[in-house]
Amino acid sequence: MAKKQLGIALIGCGGNMRGAHIPRIQKDGSVDLTAVVDTSEEQAKALMGRWGKEVPFYTDYRKMIRAHDLDAIMISSPHSMHYEQAKHALGQGLHVLVEKPLTISSKHTRSLILQADKKGKILLVSYQRNFMAPHLYARELIQQGVIGEIRGVVSYVTQNWGGVKGWRLVPELSGGGMFLDTGSHLVASTLWITGLEPLEVSAFLDNVDKDVDINMVVNVRFKGGAYGTLNTFGNAKVHDERIAIHGSEGCIVFHLHQWAVKSVLVNDEPMQIPKRIQENTPDAAFFRMIRNGGKGYELPHFALAVAQVSEAAYKSVEQGKPVKVARI
Predict the structure, then answer these.
(1) Helix, strand, or coil here: 17?
(2) b/e 261-273 (16+ beta carbons within 10 angstroms → b)
């Protein structure tokens, strides 16, 4: 049976949209790239070159949405713009995929989740790790109680932000530095896999002479008595990432290096992933859920916890003391 053809428009034509999302859209084979939005026509032309043909180009996403019959919007713009863009698209009855983080505000994140629920639309945050087979299976194991009650988590990610340029280093556009950017993947994975609910945060930050955070150490107290650390180091040489989840009956330890999963250990033995657990991407899942009426979709409540931890972390640095996570 042929896939239903979907009409998709893109907001943001930068390197992430060109290098990550365009190949996934092409792989689907039944997605019509209807139009694109960017402040730079040069960026839009580069994306069209990657797509293989020209499509209508706009600088105003509202005008674009009015002009076309669409099923969904995909957003990869500066973090501070996500909320207004996603809010408008949902308000126009469109499904929305948003690059991480969903927003830079817990209040705005909660608002989008409520709006998507009310409208009956899919709001998906593009956290790739949540669609990787080891992460999917680890979440299942924890939900089944295989490692018992979670006692603690130790998570970190490193990256070389020495060459980072553009809006990511502008606080008004990015909302924060590496912790809110690459670190958002780490925080989201840890919270999504474990289901832990953050209660209090204590954080330390080093800008390394930038206008945004480069290194950050974040200590978290969770509901139920678990504790953890969520750390980002942006002046390292290469990407390295670990998530160690320790429970009363065992542990699960992830190691990613240079953006690939190197190993996942369950009680110090290699994880054996059942064949029924299928590797996926956010884009493929997004298209499938649109076509099947939302089967398998979950509202991104974990993204609210991500926003709450991030807000509390920056507030803790500002105030120089532990901060309780805001309940909205």
Answers:
(1) helix
(2) beebebeeeebeb
- Closest by CA to 157, choosing from 220, 243, 99, 263, is 243
Q: Which helix (H) or strand (E) holds 232?
A: strand 227-233
Q: What is the mean pLDDT of the chain?
A: 96
Domains of the chain: 6-126 (3.40.50.720), 129-278+302-324 (3.30.360.10)
* Cα–Cα distance measured from residue 164 to residue 240, given in angstroms and rounded to the nearest whole number: 17
- pLDDT tens-digit readout, 34-43: 999 999 999 9
14 phi-psi bin (left φ>0, alpha ψ -120 to 50, beta other): beta
Rounded to 10°, the helix 106-119/82-91 angle is 10
DSSP for residue 43: H
Q: What's the mean pLDDT in 159-174?
A: 94
- CA gap 13, 22 in Å, rounded: 10
CA 324/CA 290 separation, integer angstroms: 37
Q: What is the mean pLDDT of residues 111-115?
A: 98
pLDDT at 141 over 80: yes
Q: Quote the CA–CA distance of 184 and 109 in Å, as a whole number.
A: 14
Between CA 40 and CA 190 the distance in angstroms is 35
52-95 residue pLDDT tens: 999 999 999 999 999 999 999 999 999 999 999 999 999 999 99
3-state secondary structure of 164: coil
State how far the alpha carbon of 67 is from the alpha carbons of 41, 56, 152, 228, in Å.
18, 10, 51, 48
Q: Residue 276 burial (CB < 10 Å; 0-12/13-18/19+)? A: exposed
